[in-house]
Design a protein that fits this description.
Largest sheet: none
Radius of gyration: 16 Å
Number of domains: 1
Shape: globular
CATH class: Mainly Alpha
Structural class: mainly alpha
Helix content: over 70%
CATH architecture: Orthogonal Bundle
Strand content: under 5%
Length: 189
């Protein structure tokens, strides 16, 4: 049986292959750097293998051609049985449902409103990962696209305000990062 770090190494490799040639929108970095940073943020608050694995895999279904079944089939080769289903559940909880492709008649505001209602019902573990995701994205966006960042950071603020069940310290940290990013934008604009 693989140890924790070997398992995470295999999961990072899988996520990197899934994201393939994708690049981060606001930096000249391969996409995988984002999920790794999200996982590292989470690791300061938990060592739960399912949470850390889901942090690395959180954008795979949403942003690649890989399905939940693809992820589950892979997880069966590297993780203990009790962690496989939980990891996939967390990834599914973190995958946006109200996306433009599926709801083309809804504007962004309405899609985000419905997504927020959905996110309110996700598990505390998924909320913790969401805080880390918001922290990483918020740090990156304010300098790169200040106009869009205003809207995005308000959406993040609304999410963190309404998701109260994740790790309290990480939630507080997310609120601080959003506030700082909003202040940075005020200085730019």
């Amino acid at each position: 049986m693989m140890d924790h770090s070997e398992i995470m190494g295999k999961i990072i490799e899988f996520a990197d292959n899934a994201h393939s040639a994708q690049m981060r929108k606001y930096s000249n970095e391969r996409y995988i750097v984002h999920p790794i940073r999200v996982m590292k943020i989470c690791s300061a608050y938990t060592q739960d293998l399912s949470v850390l694995a889901a942090a690395v895999l959180h954008d795979v279904i949403e942003d690649t051609t890989y399905s939940g079944q693809d992820i589950f089939s892979f997880l069966q080769t590297v993780m203990p049985l009790h962690d496989q289903a939980m990891t996939l559940q967390l990834v599914n909880e973190l995958t946006d449902v109200y996306v433009k492709k599926e709801f083309p008649t809804l504007n962004r505001s309405e899609r985000k409103k419905r997504e927020l209602e959905r996110l309110r019902k996700i598990s505390s573990e998924a909320q913790t990962i969401k805080y880390a995701d918001i922290i990483d994205n918020s740090r990156e966006i304010s300098g790169a696209d200040p106009d869009f960042a205003q809207r995005y950071l308000q959406e993040c603020h609304d999410i963190v305000l309404n998701l109260e069940d994740g790790d309290a310290k990480l939630r507080s940290h997310a609120q601080e990062v959003i506030r700082n990013a909003q202040n940075d934008i005020k200085d730019i604009i």
